[in-house]
């Protein structure tokens, strides 16, 4: 009953998030050098990016363990997928922060956050379908 499209999406999302994290970090550094980035906002933006990275690692671990394939979708367990779905809410909120509320929003920020939000949305739908199939 495990979902192949969901498994593929988790893998793609893991690779994409590495790109997203590095690109966002580079853009924050760029914005701090080129624009008059207030020091009071630089640390919170960086902290939120690292919190988002921790949430992403937890989310993908509960849904798809890269090392052993022992969680969530592969073992057809609802609890790890459900927990991953709950963590996704936090990741979506942080992604919206970087899309709308961060100090400076570049066009590149909009593009990479839109792609990330799309993958979160698609993944959430596939997770709900997988959980329903497991029950």
Automatic annotation (TrEMBL):
<protein>
    <submittedName>
        <fullName>TMM80 protein</fullName>
    </submittedName>
</protein>
<dbReference type="GO" id="GO:0016020">
    <property type="term" value="C:membrane"/>
</dbReference>
<dbReference type="InterPro" id="IPR019184">
    <property type="entry name" value="Uncharacterised_TM-17"/>
</dbReference>
<dbReference type="GO" id="GO:1905515">
    <property type="term" value="P:non-motile cilium assembly"/>
</dbReference>
<feature type="transmembrane region" description="Helical">
    <location>
        <begin position="79"/>
        <end position="104"/>
    </location>
</feature>
<feature type="transmembrane region" description="Helical">
    <location>
        <begin position="46"/>
        <end position="67"/>
    </location>
</feature>
<dbReference type="Pfam" id="PF09799">
    <property type="entry name" value="Transmemb_17"/>
</dbReference>
<feature type="transmembrane region" description="Helical">
    <location>
        <begin position="110"/>
        <end position="134"/>
    </location>
</feature>
<keyword id="KW-0812">Transmembrane</keyword>
<dbReference type="GO" id="GO:0035869">
    <property type="term" value="C:ciliary transition zone"/>
</dbReference>
<keyword id="KW-0472">Membrane</keyword>
<keyword id="KW-0966">Cell projection</keyword>
<keyword id="KW-1133">Transmembrane helix</keyword>
<feature type="transmembrane region" description="Helical">
    <location>
        <begin position="9"/>
        <end position="30"/>
    </location>
</feature>
């Amino acid at each position: 009953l495990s979902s192949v499209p969901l498994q593929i999406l988790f893998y793609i999302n893991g690779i994409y998030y590495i790109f997203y994290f590095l690109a966002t970090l580079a853009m924050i550094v760029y914005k701090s050098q080129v624009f008059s980035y207030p020091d009071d906002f630089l640390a919170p933006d960086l902290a939120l990016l690292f919190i988002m990275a921790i949430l992403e690692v937890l989310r993908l671990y509960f849904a798809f363990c890269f090392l052993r394939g022992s969680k969530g979708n592969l073992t057809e367990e609802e609890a790890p997928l459900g927990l991953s779905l709950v963590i996704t809410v936090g990741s979506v909120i942080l992604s919206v922060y970087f899309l709308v509320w961060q100090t400076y929003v570049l066009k590149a920020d909009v593009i990479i956050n839109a792609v990330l939000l799309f993958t979160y949305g698609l993944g959430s739908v596939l997770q709900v379908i997988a959980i329903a199939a497991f029950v």
